[in-house]
Design a protein that fits this description.
The chain is of the alpha+beta class. It has helices at about 20-55, 150-160, 165-195; strands spanning about 1-10, 55-60, 75-80, 90-95, 105-115, 120-125, 135, 140-150, 200-205. Mean pLDDT is about 80; it is low at about 5-15.
């Protein structure tokens, strides 16, 4: 008698393979989870790691004076800058009164140098029609705005809240853990599917 091989199929392991819709939903869920993990890690890098590594400070925009470029809720990363390194057009964060914590972030529109060599900066908010009343002295300047992340400033305000901080840390840790477990599960399922044995089915054709 002659045998002819006509099909190959995966041997069942005792469980029915998931349907096409279930497989697609699982794949989409894994992609979304991975994207969220990448987003969270990226935000941590640009808002925490980079400022710490470069000695920069972070501030949150609370008013509308720098719209449309820097709307409320924008997180600013501000790098220290020497007096000689500031020019017209730079956006700087400065103390309203030297030595006090209240700060403003506005754009330099004019640089003035007095006869004794003292430098002062005339600033103005991009959304304001007139310049700020008092020129800014060099010792008031905290630094130049390096880059900004829209919307993240509100999270920074919540993070600094002593009552909400433990909850935010817990939620962030759970999100990262869930994302990692989902990715590991997807990788294991993919490997298991690729390593499943192949059953050889034959049809016998009598002579």
């Amino acid at each position: 008698m002659t045998t002819v091989s006509i099909a190959h199929r995966r041997r069942s392991t005792g469980t029915r393979p998931p349907g096409r819709v279930a497989r697609i939903a699982r794949a989409v869920g894994t992609v979304v989870t991975a994207a969220l993990l990448i987003l969270v890690c990226g935000l941590l890098v640009v808002t925490v790691v980079v400022p710490i590594a470069t000695g920069s400070n972070t501030y949150t925009v609370l008013t509308r004076s720098m719209e449309p470029g820097l709307p409320p809720g924008t997180l600013l990363v501000v790098r220290p800058a020497g007096a000689g390194g500031l020019h017209v057009g730079d956006v700087v964060t400065y103390q309203l009164r030297s030595g006090e914590p209240d700060v403003v972030t506005h754009r330099i529109v004019r640089v003035e140098t007095s006869s004794d060599g003292t430098t002062r900066y005339v600033t103005r908010g991009d959304a304001n029609a007139v310049a700020d009343a008092a020129p800014v002295r060099a010792e008031q300047v905290r630094g130049r705005v390096w880059y900004a992340v829209p919307g993240v400033g509100w999270l920074a305000i919540l993070k600094n809240s002593t009552s909400l901080q433990p909850w935010l840390i817990g939620i962030g840790a759970l999100l990262i853990l869930y994302s990692l477990l989902s990715i590991v599960s997807w990788v294991r399922n993919a490997r298991r599917g690729n390593s499943a044995p192949v059953a050889h089915r034959e049809t016998y054709i009598p002579l």
